[in-house]
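Continued from yesterday's entry.
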Amino acid sequence: MKTRNHKSLGALHPVLFFSGIYFVALLFSIFICSAIFYSCNSHGGGSLASKSKQAKPPVQVEKPVEVMAIASR
């Protein structure tokens, strides 16, 4: 029988597989949790378009002054 000169990764296959799955799940959970965090802590401006509309100062409208004429005799 020949002896094997290369290292066998067959015994480490479950360890490598589950560590890979762990890191993929960790990346997804960080992404999902940060998305939930930023959506809960937003300040009402949902998109960039609504933020640009809010950046303009409001236009002041002058109210008409009501004048009553007093009839004199």
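--- second protein ---
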Amino acid sequence: MKRLYIHHASAFLAAPDTALGTYKQIVKQLTGHVLRRANRFVLLSVIGAMQCARGAELDPLTGIYLATENGNLSDTENVLDQIFHQGNLPMPYNFIHTMSNTAAFYVANQLGGSGPNMTISSKYLSYERALELARLDLSTDRVHAALIGGVDDAGLPALQFGQRYPRHASVKLIEGSCWQYANDQPAGALGYVDGPVTFAAPDALIAHLRQIVVTPASWQVCWGLNVDRAVKQACNQVLPDLKSFDFINAHGYFDTLPAGVVSRFLEPRQPGNLAWVNTDKQGRWMVVSISRSI
């Protein structure tokens, strides 16, 4: 498949208690439009995508690939509360907004163009699956370019997050909408993406890292929260000079974290490479490698 060359990247990160009115004002500044009935998830999606597209000459046949782990979690929780706790029918707009795939349409509507738009969710590997689809569509000429994003609000309470990730209960939760605009043209690119490459076992993953990390001093690695210490230690034994890219410690965590990792890594124009390593609860392992261009 064709390599994805990233020409624009942006990372919009915000505190969980950011007022909805603040998001609406940012959307108005970016688009000139007031999205009166848009919810938190839609607003986050539009803000991140428009920030990435600002200053870019988008090909009309650009595909939009919005990855999300949870979709519109806030309105979904509201609807369930109205039905099961309050014993009422859900409010119409809350009910409509549980359809998370409308966010990709809102992005497409703001950007124009004639490419496909879709929402992708695959538990713990949503962004990686979006990359796969974007590369496939680009390789088969279904699209000429791709706008790939990861969007999630911080709807999960800190207590539930701590129960899901007990080793990371103290992590700061944030909201994120992080996007990259990519095509198959290397000229002027910030960097390029290879992968995701899939493995059935951590041993095969570590062997792959050993193969691609030819010069450890120029590589960094960023780990997903599901990666256990034993795998990290095994990697450190094989590649002791491999540095860590600690996005979570620097910025916080949202559920489509790898989209933020890619955007933040590409922002400085410095040489180097990054390996993003992730896994799900079924033992599927994925590596995405990102290389910066000068």
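The first strand starts at residue 4 and ends at 14. The CA atoms of residues 161 and 257 lie 14 Å apart. Will compare against the first tomorrow.
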